[in-house]
Design brief:
Structural class: mainly alpha
Largest sheet: none
Strand content: under 5%
Number of helices: 12
CATH architecture of one domain: Alpha Horseshoe
CATH class of one domain: Mainly Alpha
Helix content: over 70%
Distance between the termini: 113 Å
CATH topology of one domain: Serine Threonine Protein Phosphatase 5, Tetratricopeptide repeat
Number of strands: 0
Radius of gyration: 31 Å
Shape: elongated
């Protein structure tokens, strides 16, 4: 009997210690929550880190959601506009863990709010570096891919194709502008071409991509001849002429698709006039000269 009595005492003591540990961690959770509410997230951070690592509270979805909110506040202050953000990664991992523990409706909603905000931040970074004033294709594309990755996981009815069409049209248009100014800028031209072809892979009738790719080919053909003339390099005239003719023909095939377009009809017609003139196609040049006159398009 004495032996069993000792065992009961040990079990009771163990239970008391276990209960005390749980209460201590819940107390720590409440302190972290209070500090977060007071916007003192720097002090809240080590406390919540301890809570989520403790065996007694590691499986509480509340702990991981609170960690996500605390780290999100720190992330907003210092790393929101960065592509690589350890704080953002911690937030996403905390949300993922919380969602895996079957949170109640209110916590699910809070988790979704943080996720949607981060998805929006990736979108903003992607757009920022796709603009002509701050073009950086590597950063923009990385952010775009992260935006899609999270959206596909957490955004209902996410339409990846329409998002890609919009994104790659923007990239194609802006990098085409850079390429059109300098035919030797092969890197920008390749980015533009790849982006526009991606759009046409998704939507072969996309008028914006069709027009920009056509103009890209046309301007390249013109600039190659211009630069050859300026450099007075006549050793490879035949090769250059063949290349420019090929590019002009590629432009022609694309722009012919837009001759009935409401948005691009005038611009396509004008471009085709100059293409045929450069190709020394007298019949087509005259035909498109008349079309330009009918559309009140001024030509040289």
């Amino acid at each position: 009997m004495k032996r069993w009595h000792k065992i009961h005492i040990l079990l009771l003591f163990s239970f008391i210690l276990s209960t005390s540990s749980v209460l201590a961690q819940i107390g720590a959770f409440n302190r972290a929550q209070k500090l977060y509410g007071e916007k003192n997230t720097e002090l809240a951070k080590p406390i919540i880190d301890s809570v989520v690592l403790n065996a007694e509270t590691t499986n509480m979805f509340e702990s991981h959601t609170l960690k996500a909110f605390i780290y999100y506040d720190l992330y907003k202050k210092t790393e929101k506009d960065q592509i690589n953000s350890p704080l953002r990664d911690t937030v996403l991992n905390a949300i993922k863990k919380s969602n895996s523990l079957n949170p109640d409706t209110s916590y699910k909603i809070n988790n979704a709010k943080v996720l949607n905000a981060i998805i929006g931040h990736y979108r903003n970074i992607s757009v920022k570096y796709s603009k002509e004033s701050s073009l950086n294709y590597t950063l923009s594309l990385t952010a775009h891919q992260k935006f899609k990755e999270l959206s596909k996981l957490y955004t209902p009815n996410f339409n990846e194709k329409s998002i890609d069409v919009e994104y790659y049209n923007t990239i194609g248009s802006n990098y085409s502008e850079l390429s059109n100014k300098n035919s030797k800028n092969e890197a920008d031209r390749e980015i533009a071409k790849t982006a526009l072809l991606k759009v046409l892979d998704i939507d072969q009738n996309n008028e914006s991509a069709t027009y920009n790719l056509g103009i890209l080919y046309y301007n390249l053909s013109v600039n190659i001849v211009k630069e050859m003339t300026e450099d007075l390099n006549l050793n490879n005239v035949d090769a250059v002429q063949e290349n420019t003719k090929k590019l002009a023909k590629q432009a022609e095939q694309l722009l012919l698709k837009l001759t009935n377009s409401v948005k691009f009809k005038n611009r396509a017609t004008e471009a085709l006039y100059y293409i045929y003139r450069n190709l020394l196609d007298a019949q087509k040049t005259e035909e498109y000269k008349k079309k330009c006159i009918e559309l009140n398009i001024k030509i040289d």
